[in-house]
Amino acid sequence: MCPPPQHTRCFMLTLVDMIIYGALRAADCYALRWSRVLRPLLLVNVTEGRQLRRAFRSIRNALPQIFYVFLLFMFSVLIFSLMALKLLGKRGLKTIDGSPYFTNYLEIVFDLYVLVTTANSPDIMMPAYNSSFIFAIFFIVYILINTYIFMSVFLAVVYNNYKKYLKEEMRQLVRAKRHKMVRAFAVLQEPSGEGVEPVVTQANWNQVVRLVRPDISNAHRELLWSVSDNKNQGFIGKVAFVQLADLLNIEVITLKSRPHPLHRLCPTLYLSGPSRLLCRLVQHRAFVIMYDLIILVNAVFIGLDEENPLIANSEWVFLALYLLEILLKLYVFEPRAFFSRHNFWNWFDTIIVVSALIATIVNSAMKSSGGYTSRQILDIVFILRVLRLIRVVDSIQRFRTIINTLIRIGPAILTFGQLILVVYYVFAMVGMELFKDKVKFYEDPNDPEKFYCGNARLRGTAFAHLNYCKNNFNNVVSTFILLVELTVVNQWHVLSSGFAIVTHMSARIFFVLFHILVVIVIINIFVAFVLEAFFVEYSLEKSDLQTSLEKKIAELELAVEQEKLQENLVNAMETIDNDLGTGQSAASNKPTLMFKIASKRYRTVDALLQRMFEADLDPEDFAENDDAQGDGNFANPSFSSV
């Protein structure tokens, strides 16, 4: 298979750059590695980068409308800068470091642009405010118009246009998916009689599902067929077949019921009255609440003075209680179910408790023998044990709903994380070429060059005074950390001014462009997208297909009792298979396999996006008249990616 043309072009440009760079370095001339900024193209254009390409396309398509708003915003900044120059430029005011105040128009433009981000507020206003309180009105009006009104408009315009193009992309994706499903139906269909619509038989349907989802069990596949063929006819029509892709995107968890080993080894003891009472107590809600309170008390003790013998010895008590909890649960719940692949909290608690026990024993043994007495390892374990407080959050319904929603939209959020990383990389490569070794950090506190970051031009500047020397472009790690600081925007004007001092004032353009692209455009899109996705997940009910699937599971008496499987954080992390049952609760008349819907979780980002724009998508739009696919030869649709 030949590489994509974008990859070929990128490799060719990189090769040319390396040749030119090597030749210039051999001739002892200044050389610039300009092809480094093209490396993210390799990430964007791989097959797995489809979500990233979509995000870039949507932003690119939205930029023209965003540009007009930005022009209006800059016009406002320029007008206010001109007013500031005329109002304050000839009053002889000085800044805190003694330099003239608001006498250079370009400096005023930059300072007022920074004021929009509030990074230099109220410092930039104080010389004028100290002169007369009337000048404070100027800055208040400026902040109201540009920070609160224009930035809000930016958020609305940026996301509205991004959403419009994203929705169009999703519409085309859904139509293409349905178009392929219709064409697949045309290949698999069998005539069911004269004047009757063609159908797909169960045998052909099973072959398709085995091909595209070989990981699901036979029972799961039979369940999906019973949903598609709700009239038990042995065949389905076009509409039901086209819905197969969406049906496969619904996460169904298979739960296996197994008897407890003690139930088989010593049934008399395990099924006795005291044993049954113990199992009921461990499975009761009060047991969970009791251990949540123990975790909270333990967290308080960890924060107290460890030199106190009572506090130090209390850790043994808490460890004993945690071990008792695990042993009781292993007695009640079938061990393979307790330590199943997706029982996150059971694994987490066991690892943390066992690690804490081992570390405590080792630390006590070494301390008693007069050897190594450091508690660093134990402190790390204590910190991990504090993380068990998340279990307390899981016990509160409102908190659980919010966190579940965040977990479900996590893949979509990761797409924006990849987008930001790509933009970071481009700016990092440009920044390293422009500012490398202009600012240096010295480990030795007695080195005199430490006080001006190895560059005499920074002597006496705010950059050096605040000890920002480690914020530099000398390597990839420090560059990315600096870009994160610029994204936060606090003190970004000090950072940009420092690099402008050691190079040229035009270097501020680099930092302003970064702020516009990352903070104003991408971060605004990210915030609005999270709000939109959160609203969809938090408020909308389950889709019709999910409802039909749940009804079929209940109809076949394969549903898990809801009081036994409360929706919690574990549900949001489960996939495909799980284990169910205890030696006490798994009755002999229960089926060995049971099913439940994994909340409203989506297998792919596309499924979430389709859910977000579901109201705008015509369910009968099969795109049967679209012939853009070519001559009719097509690959089987991959349901894991649609």
Give a summary of the structure in a few sentences.
By secondary structure, the protein is mainly α.
Short key terms for the protein model shown above:
63% helix, 642 residues, single chain, 5 strands, globular, two-stranded antiparallel sheet, three-stranded mixed sheet
Task: Lay out the secondary structure.
Blueprint: H1 5-26, H2 40-44, H3 50-88, H4 105-116, H5 126-131, H6 134-188, E1 200-201, H7 202-212, H8 218-228, E2 235-236, H9 238-242, H10 244-248, E3 250-257, H11 261-265, H12 267-270, H13 273-283, H14 285-303, H15 309-332, H16 335-338, H17 344-368, H18 376-386, H19 389-394, H20 397-408, H21 410-435, H22 462-465, H23 476-488, H24 492-502, H25 508-539, H26 544-555, H27 569-573, E4 577-580, E5 593-602, H28 605-612
Parallel strand pairs: 3-4
Antiparallel strand pairs: 1-2, 3-5
Strand order of the largest sheet: 4-3-5
Name the overall outline: globular
Residue fraction in strands = under 5%
Q: Work out the helicity level.
A: 55-70%
- Major sheet: size, sense and barrel closure? 3 strands, mixed
Average pLDDT number: 77
Distance between the termini: 23 Å
Number of E strands: 5
Uncertain segments are 558-582, 585-590, 627-642
Instruction: Kindly provide the radius of gyration, computed on alpha-carbon positions and rounded to a whole number of angstroms.
Output: 32 Å
**Given the helix and strand composition, which structural class is it?**
mainly alpha
Q: With helices defined by DSSP (H or I, 4 residues minimum), what is the helix count?
A: 28
